[in-house]
């Protein structure tokens, strides 16, 4: 079972600080359940983690419903796609477009799918959280980090990258090579997803 008391504060932080959840918005917490293929091919630990993720997503939806009563919170489970970036069923993709904010607590990532892209084009704010377990929401877990500071440092590093054209990687162990990044633009994955159509992975900071 999920220790709700240990994740409650972290869940509230992600919804307010990272997702900017506002009164009267529609929130969806979604997760992928084991398919017949998963049951045949995954080992016991991976299946156990997948089911824990399902329980985590359900608990997050319950917390959101209690702590944000002026928002409409929904919880859905869909059959897993079996791999990262594979498209979910069409009904799942269509449903994603009906919300303002989505937390995807999944085993297989939705980040690089047409389903996610179509939803964000409609203005949906999406946090893709593949493979997370409840400990990321604990005190001192990755979702309770200082995301204002993470965003600031990430943007500073992005500026450094965008102001140069060559990268050199050197270590005392003997690594020493250079490569060009000319014509390539650095992007900040800050974890702050509070504007229309924002999306990214959480935990973040790339």
Write a structural description.
The chain is α/β, with parallel strands linked by helices and 206 residues long. Helix content is 37%, strand content 18%. It is built from 6 helices and 7 strands. It has helices at residues 4-18, 36-41, 44-67, 90-96, 114-121, 147-162; strands at 26-33, 72-79, 101-104, 125-128, 166-170, 176-180, 199-201. Strands 2-1-3-4-7 form a 5-stranded parallel sheet, sandwiched between helices. Helix 1 packs across helix 3 (44-67). The protein starts with a helix and ends in a 5-residue tail after the last strand. The mean pLDDT is 95.
Write the H/E string, N to C: HEHHEHEHEHEEE
Radius of gyration: 19 Å
Mean pLDDT, all residues: 95
- Helix content range: 25-40%
Physical arrangement of strands within the biggest beta sheet = 2-1-3-4-7
By DSSP, the count of extended strands is 7
Count of helical stretches: 6
Low-pLDDT runs: none
Q: What coarse outline follows from CA principal-axis ratios?
A: globular
Question: In angstroms, what separates the terminal alpha carbons?
Answer: 32 Å
Content-based structural category: alpha/beta
Percent in strands: 15-25%
Biggest beta-sheet profile: 5 strands, parallel
